[in-house]
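Reopening this ticket.

The earlier resolution said the output was attached, but the attachment link was broken on my side. Pasting everything inline this time so it's all in one place.
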Amino acid sequence: MFGEMLIGEILIIASGVFLGYVFPDLIKECGIGNDISYSYLSIVAVGLLPVIAYFTRPVWVHGDLSIAGIAGFTESIFLWLTITLVIGAAIRITQHYLSSR
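Inline output:
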């Protein structure tokens, strides 16, 4: 798996865990309460962000006001980014619940 990956892809995957880990804290700092920021809703939200980014990539890359399909998502780095973001958020939420007990 790692033999075929580029260094940029490895960095994206590694940063996904970190960004997923800090995501619940970021949305808490934006004014959302603990009950939402440290719940499964934040895991779902952070998991949907790369899917939305992949879906709207022509807007961000080329400036086209068109929406791309979701085909090819599972073959792209966005799938791994989604997985690592969800893992990082789940770790942070688990840590929050264990430390609040």
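Reporter confirms the inline version is readable. Residues 21 and 88 are 4 Å apart (CA to CA). The two ends are 39 Å apart (CA to CA).
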